[in-house]
Design brief:
single chain, mainly beta, 6-stranded mixed beta sheet, 6 helices, 11% helix
């Protein structure tokens, strides 16, 4: 051995000793409290639809990697942009300083091409979360991934295996083209329009007069009951794999398997079931809840649910995630061995919207609906505004809708201002208790809830978070238990139970024919920020005046959903508001700075359903505006 080799060997031995010493020190000191992670956003060819397409990826994959942190860990995350356009990463559901939240135009300037941006924050929580681009329409192109944060202490449930299940939607058409098509014709992607033959079917079922009246009512509103989702033609993915590619998670019979479901879709609500297995819901949006046994659950865009299943048989099971609009299926498999498959359930009948979803309590009282003002089209781009800094991409148009004339106690349909789209016909003073799920609702605590008794026919065990008679009310296959928001109870209250200091009404508004979406009839560029004061508790009253469901996401602070469970109300980062409903939620204002607040349906956010929230006071913060 020559001198150079000897020196090299000596350095290698010293390096090994140093590494062993560092490892020993880490082991003796417990889990590491600091970590550095590197993400690269670029372009990669993928094939999930039968043709090769270019996706925008994180570290070369769709979805990006699962980032696993430990609660209390100080994080350094380097994000390199190799695209030819600006990008960003938002840490969805994570409590971070507002300057680290990743929203261009609100919390920072974005990440320019060819540069690396470093995020620094502590993992202050545990649970299942995700991350995605907040720039343009990049999320639809593939820029998203999952986050798992391990808790410091023991969790209140046991499991033997742990899988992340990321649900998403992929479209071969570029999202910019999709949005342009929707702006030109809002039902461009509605491939299930009613036909003359379906009219004859309605005549056979309802009679000629009722069928004709129904078609006339919807026609006068220039809307269609088949418009459950804005976009068809999606391929639905599980962990980036289509149904034929069949992502598979392995298990040993008898094991408890934790499935961390994340809805990273741009536009798709999923109804999730595993035929042959009961699911126990243990977390919602990263927060522990009292266990709920269900056969099926609906997961809105941006929500997460953690469930535990215990397959005891030596066979495969299908994870079936069916879009709410029944336009396909995302499919995966749990199996004892690779290559095993189970039968895939048949797709169920497509639901139809009802007048309850339009804010009306049935088919009666629709006289005078003709001639609805579908809105004007003024230029919405502020003069001199750099649109790449507009976090909501609010390039659409919006007319003012006169909602103030609505009699909330008892709506007179004949005197309604039709430019408002007739959505606010809910009785704000009463609650149809007979329509609630009596097994899951704390009736004594329902006095704070205001979901609207809108009349019309109700279904047995009506979910109180859907309008009575809604065509979207979920039902489980084979008559099983379907999860309701009303079932969610916190394992442990996150905040002191106290009264809200004030209430802010958030009316979800828009114009489906013109395809733009708004809050309180104002687009993002026209609206003043919502101003909150550090230390207060604010009640948000969400009133959905549209025919679409909206998953509302407030950055930086938890949302306490009022589901009638008092101090055990669940804490969420995303709350879905169904058509024709009013939902209450409270926010403990404990995060100073500037935050985004928006519908998480990507094309709704992009066309105006977006606000900036400014928290004034509290610890010193640095504003970007």
């Amino acid at each position: 051995m020559n001198a150079r080799d000897s020196q090299s060997l000596g350095r290698a031995m010293l390096k090994s000793v140093a590494i062993l010493g560092a490892a020993s020190a880490l082991l003796s000191a417990g889990p590491a409290l600091a970590g550095t992670y590197d993400l690269t956003i670029g372009e990669t060819a993928i094939n999930v639809s039968g043709t090769v397409q270019t996706a925008q990826t994180i570290n070369g994959t769709v979805p990006g990697p699962t980032l696993r942190f430990k609660e209390g860990e100080d994080l350094v995350i380097n994000v390199t942009n190799t695209l030819d356009e600006d990008t960003s990463i938002h840490w969805h559901g994570l409590i971070v300083p507002f300057t680290q939240d990743g929203v261009p135009g609100i919390s920072f300037d974005g990440i320019e091409p060819g540069t690396t941006h470093t995020y620094r924050f502590a993992a202050q929580q545990s649970g299942t979360y995700w991350f995605h681009s907040h720039s343009g329409l990049q999320e639809q192109k593939g820029v998203y991934g999952s986050i798992v944060i391990e808790p410091k202490g023991r969790e209140p449930f046991r499991y033997d295996r742990d899988y992340v299940v990321v649900l998403s939607d992929w479209h071969d058409t570029k999202p910019e083209k999709i949005l342009a098509n929707l702006k030109k014709q809002s039902d461009y992607y509605n491939y299930n329009q009613r036909t003359l033959m379906s009219f004859f079917d309605d005549v056979s079922e309802k009679g000629f007069g009722a069928a004709l009246s129904d078609r006339t009512d919807w026609g006068e509103m220039r809307m269609t009951p088949t418009d459950i989702a804005d976009i068809s033609g999606y391929t639905f993915l599980v962990n980036g794999k289509n149904p034929e590619q069949n992502w598979t998670g392995l298990f040993e019979p008898g094991e408890r398997v934790r499935l961390r479901f994340i809805n990273a879709a741009a536009m798709t609500y999923f109804d999730v079931r595993i035929p042959g297995l009961e699911m126990t819901v243990v977390q919602a949006d990263g927060n522990n809840v009292q266990p709920v046994k269900v056969d099926e659950f609906r997961i809105a865009v941006a929500e997460t649910y953690d469930v535990i299943v215990r397959p005891k048989e030596d066979r495969a099971y299908t994870i079936a995630a069916e879009p709410m609009a029944r336009t396909g299926m995302a499919r995966a498999t749990l199996a004892p061995r690779a290559g095993m498959e189970a039968a895939v359930p048949e797709g169920r009948e497509r639901p139809m919207l009802t007048m309850a979803d339009m804010g009306h309590g049935g088919m009666e009282g629709m006289e005078g609906m003709e001639g609805m003002d579908q809105g004007q089209m003024p230029d919405m781009t502020p003069p001199g505004k750099d649109t790449k800094q507009m976090p909501g991409m609010d390039q659409s148009t919006m007319s003012q809708m006169d909602q103030g004339s609505m009699n909330q106690g008892a709506v007179n349909q004949g005197s309604m201002d039709q430019s408002s789209m007739g959505q606010s016909s809910m009785d704000q003073g009463s609650m149809n208790q007979s329509s609630m799920d009596q097994d899951s609702m704390d009736q004594g605590a329902m006095t704070k809830m205001d979901h609207g008794a809108m009349g019309g026919k109700t279904k047995t065990r009506q979910d109180p978070f859907y309008a009575p008679g809604s065509g979207l009310t979920p039902t489980a296959a084979n008559g099983g238990k379907f999860l309701s928001y009303a079932d969610l109870k916190a394992q442990k209250p996150l905040y002191e139970d106290r009264e809200a200091t004030r209430e802010i009404e958030i009316r979800l508004t828009g114009n489906m024919e013109r395809y733009f979406w708004s809050i309180n009839d104002k687009k993002y560029s026209e609206a003043e920020p919502i101003r909150l004061k550090y230390g207060e508790r604010v009640r948000f009253k969400f009133v959905n005046e549209t025919m679409m469901s909206h998953p509302m996401h407030l950055h930086g602070m938890w949302t306490i959903l009022d589901n009638g469970n008092g101090k055990m109300n669940p804490v969420k980062h995303t709350v879905s508001i169904a058509p024709g409903t009013t939902v209450l939620a409270e926010v403990e204002v404990d995060a100073p700075g500037q935050w985004a607040f928006h519908c998480h349906l990507m094309y709704h956010m992009a066309t105006g359903m977006f606000r900036m929230v400014i928290v004034e006071g509290g610890p010193q913060t640095t504003s970007v505006n």
